[in-house]
Amino acid sequence: MATVSQWIEGARPRTLPNAIAPVVVGTGAAGHVGDIVWWKAALALVVSLALIVGVNYANDYSDGIRGTDDDRVGPLRLVGSGAASPRSVKTAAFVSLGIAAAAGIVVAVTTAWWLLAVGAVCILGAWFYTGGSRPYGYAGYGEVAVFLFFGLIAVLGTQFVVSGRVDVTGLMCAIAVGCFSSAVLVANNLRDIPTDTESGKITLAVRLGDRRTRTLFVLLIFVPFLITIWVGAFADWWALSGLLALPLGILALRPVVSGAQGRALIPTLATTGFAMLVWAVATGVAIGLS
């Protein structure tokens, strides 16, 4: 029987910035184009948090029963370590995804019915990332999914739900957050290239190889700051406050560009997530108040 602390670790709290950042900056983008409906912003945050916890438990379950996590560097895997049964982790995943669905239904009913279809796609994407007979995370499409779900859909979806419309500023913010979120996964998969290769998990990092994966990470870190400059120059100069996260971005880059391997890359995941959160808060507050 897993302890409470093990269940919390299994939920991978270091990934929570991937859920919080898009809602924060999406709410700021909503304030940039209209009034903010705060209770809808709160529901959007519930959806995002429950979805990412559900994804993490679903990945733990699916990777665990496949044996992918038998020899893994990084946070505790509940199934792979034997701390919890596959059935209990699967139940935790379904409960989390159910919470996301319930909150999402309220959002859709009070905003636009077609959001139900978007929510269904998100939940299916969460499960089939590593679940099912042909998981797309095992075919190198994980980063694309993260960019789509926790970048474009999460940011623009929040902006639309909270204000009733989207704009170019919101789109640029969505691209930036998508790059940050994808960078977190790229760093994770860079760390796991040896074990993923051995277990047959063909991530994008496995396909690209070590050197090109590191190059991709550098690009994903710098794109959000280039977008910050663009938005500041052509839309709202307050958006330049997002550059406050640049030192954290550079700090996240150092282990990657220096050739760090294995556990030495773990700090990069946390620092990248923190950089994304600082960027989202600084940018969201700035453009929202402007």
From TrEMBL:
<comment type="pathway">
    <text>Quinol/quinone metabolism; menaquinone biosynthesis; menaquinol from 1,4-dihydroxy-2-naphthoate: step 1/2.</text>
</comment>
<feature type="transmembrane region" description="Helical">
    <location>
        <begin position="114"/>
        <end position="132"/>
    </location>
</feature>
<comment type="function">
    <text>Conversion of 1,4-dihydroxy-2-naphthoate (DHNA) to demethylmenaquinone (DMK).</text>
</comment>
<feature type="transmembrane region" description="Helical">
    <location>
        <begin position="264"/>
        <end position="289"/>
    </location>
</feature>
<dbReference type="InterPro" id="IPR026046">
    <property type="entry name" value="UBIAD1"/>
</dbReference>
<dbReference type="GO" id="GO:0042371">
    <property type="term" value="P:vitamin K biosynthetic process"/>
</dbReference>
<dbReference type="Pfam" id="PF01040">
    <property type="entry name" value="UbiA"/>
</dbReference>
<feature type="transmembrane region" description="Helical">
    <location>
        <begin position="91"/>
        <end position="108"/>
    </location>
</feature>
<feature type="transmembrane region" description="Helical">
    <location>
        <begin position="144"/>
        <end position="162"/>
    </location>
</feature>
<protein>
    <recommendedName>
        <fullName>1,4-dihydroxy-2-naphthoate octaprenyltransferase</fullName>
        <ecNumber>2.5.1.74</ecNumber>
    </recommendedName>
</protein>
<keyword id="KW-0474">Menaquinone biosynthesis</keyword>
<keyword id="KW-0808">Transferase</keyword>
<feature type="transmembrane region" description="Helical">
    <location>
        <begin position="237"/>
        <end position="257"/>
    </location>
</feature>
<dbReference type="InterPro" id="IPR000537">
    <property type="entry name" value="UbiA_prenyltransferase"/>
</dbReference>
<dbReference type="GO" id="GO:0009234">
    <property type="term" value="P:menaquinone biosynthetic process"/>
</dbReference>
<dbReference type="GO" id="GO:0005886">
    <property type="term" value="C:plasma membrane"/>
</dbReference>
<feature type="transmembrane region" description="Helical">
    <location>
        <begin position="36"/>
        <end position="58"/>
    </location>
</feature>
<keyword id="KW-1003">Cell membrane</keyword>
<comment type="similarity">
    <text>Belongs to the MenA family. Type 1 subfamily.</text>
</comment>
<dbReference type="GO" id="GO:0046428">
    <property type="term" value="F:1,4-dihydroxy-2-naphthoate polyprenyltransferase activity"/>
</dbReference>
<keyword id="KW-0812">Transmembrane</keyword>
<dbReference type="InterPro" id="IPR044878">
    <property type="entry name" value="UbiA_sf"/>
</dbReference>
<keyword id="KW-1133">Transmembrane helix</keyword>
<keyword id="KW-0472">Membrane</keyword>
<feature type="transmembrane region" description="Helical">
    <location>
        <begin position="168"/>
        <end position="187"/>
    </location>
</feature>
<feature type="transmembrane region" description="Helical">
    <location>
        <begin position="215"/>
        <end position="231"/>
    </location>
</feature>
<dbReference type="InterPro" id="IPR004657">
    <property type="entry name" value="MenA"/>
</dbReference>
